[in-house]
Write a structure and sequence with these properties.
Length: about 400
Amino acid sequence: MHAYKHSLLSDDKRVLLLKIILSLGCFVGLLMSMRLWLSARYYPLSPVIEKLPVISPPFDYVLYISVLALLILIAIARRPFKYIAVFLLLAVFLSLSDQSRWQPWFYQYLFMLAAICIYSWGSSDADKQMALLNTCRLIIATVYFWSGVQKINGSFVDRTFPSLVNPYFNFFFGVRNPFPPWLIILVPLFEVSIGIGLLTRKFRDVSVFLALMTHILVLLLFMPVRRNSVVWPWNVAMACFLVILFWRAKDFSMRDVLLPRKPGFQALVVVLFGIMPLFSLFNLWDSYLSSTLYSGNTAAAVIYLNESMKERLPPGIQGHVQQSPSNGKFLINLNRWSLAELNVPSYPEKRIFINITKRICADAEDASEVNLMIYGKPNWLNGYRKTYTYNCSDL
């Protein structure tokens, strides 16, 4: 008798539901961030290699619609492997064409879909089916773990967490900063414990319940103020993954997930999702590939312009220029620009900030007309950020 007979769901049903939620979650995410996947936009593309061909309109729309259609086929097909393989090829090409597309939810979906494509999951091949599920379990558990670790910093305590809860406490109770710092620091520790608890038999179901409550709270915080709407379906999908992969699943151990029996795709996932995020703490791995969303532990950037430079910008970019109330300078907040045009946060890496500024500099008559100010990652203890300033001649 298979171990899954004692579980709420058989492994066959778990994999089937996983495939459906993955494809639909990715579909909705792509639909809500349409301009991110097109070339016809003002926010510059940041290709991995400059010589990569740009897919021009209307072919960028054709590619985008094809990717969406493939996700629908993956959701409904009984044997989706060929559709997943084509989707992955197109997704990798789109990702190489613009690093801003390396959003945390898309990165996660790609690897989970790749696990389905690589491991056959017919009921006759229980070992590969279990490897598929354990690979996806590894991804989900490490997302919670590293998301918590990344939040252990002064910026999350002083700025990020208060920015999420203060609007509500201020509106309903007329109170700002209701939580003392020592209580806020328990939030990342709570998230770390969920990631670990999901991999233990004893605390697995409790961790699922606590994680579900967390996602409900996130949606209650984000939806009324329309904050970063593209992560709403990701939170719903994560809640579904918790139930599908972990709820009353007693037939796997932490060792099964973290120490794959054979070298292969699961071992690669251990490296990319389990180990490499550690290097992001030392600026040796990208933040968004390390579960840093809303952690406060990312870099940020602002482009300062003089008035004549502002007037030379295309109208689609001028709409994102603000004037600082403190010093009257004109500026473009790259995160706000990205959210407004693409409906995703800016990819928080220095090379991306520089690439975008170089595109702005193309319209400059003098190097001093444009200045990029990068705010580095915060000091984990006091939240202090080093700043770096560049003009067009420095880029």
